[in-house]
Amino acid sequence: MYLTKPEPSTLIIFGATGDLAKKKLLPALYRLLSLKLLPDVFNIIGMATRALSDDEYRNFAKVEIVKNSRVQPVDNAKLDKLLSRTWFISSPFDNRAGYEKLASRLVDIDKTSGVKCGRLFYLATPPSFFVPIIEVLAQTGLSRKDAEQEQKAKIVIEKPFGRDKTSATELNKLILKNFDEEEVYRIDHYLGKETVQNILYFRFANGIYEPIWNRRYIDHVQITAAESIGVEGRGKYFEEAGTLRDMVQNHILQLLSLVAMEPPISMDAEVIRGKKYELLKSMRPIEPHETPLYTVRGQYGAGNIEGVNVPGYREEEGVGKESETETYVALKAQIDNWRWAGVPFYLRTGKRMKQNLTEIALHFKEVPHCLFTKNIATCPERNVLTLKIQPDEGIAFQFNVKRPGSANYMETVKMDFSYKDSFKTELPEAYERLILDCMLGDSTLFPHKEGIEASWEFITKILGGWANQPPPRFPNYSAGTWGPQEADALMAQGGRVWKNQ
Ligand code: BG6
Question: Is the whole-model pTM more than 0.90?
Answer without folding.
Answer: yes
